[in-house]
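Review this chain:
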Amino acid sequence: MKLLSLLSLLSVATAFGVSPHPVSQQKATSIVDKPAFRKDSVINSPLFRDPTKVRGGAVPGWAAYNDALDKHPLTAKACTSLVGWALGDFLAQVFISGGPFDVKRFITLSAFGFLYHGPSGHYFYNWLDKFIEGSDGLSVAKKVAFDQIIWCPIFMTVFFTYLGLVNGDSFAAIGDKIKNDLLSACQGSW
């Protein structure tokens, strides 16, 4: 299974124009002769494609994704969250859990990302930006504090409830899970 995941990561890297064997176009220079960052170094990097040949610039599909965010923000964010939760659970199961791949868990968490995380995040963060305006340090600190102190417990409560309902747990069992694990789950988020 790990070999399959490594091959899929390699294919994703290849899709973004990354070669496992980058071609060196310059002769080696010493660290002293070469500045730490050169503006033209990105042009030769295998991490980026030619923006004239790829729709949306260097990253394939970026313009289409931004267009979807403008035209259908709720759907775009729901799909983005679906991909994020699916990828996160896939990687966790393959590289951390070590057991057989749990398809039910994968579908359950992916669906949660699509049905709740993406849409609720869309509405909550749009509301938060209107409630606390600005992008200066103090405004950002207030937004982060509100997110972690108010939103995180609400989000975790919904997450525990969703998982309990999907697993067929009773409301009493779900309530106990929330009472016992909510604080530590929020602390893990902090």
Remarks:
- Residues 137-166 form the longest helix (30 residues).
- The two ends are 32 Å apart (CA to CA).
- DSSP finds six helices and no strands in the chain.
- The helical segments are 2-15, 62-71, 73-97, 103-131, 137-166, 171-189.
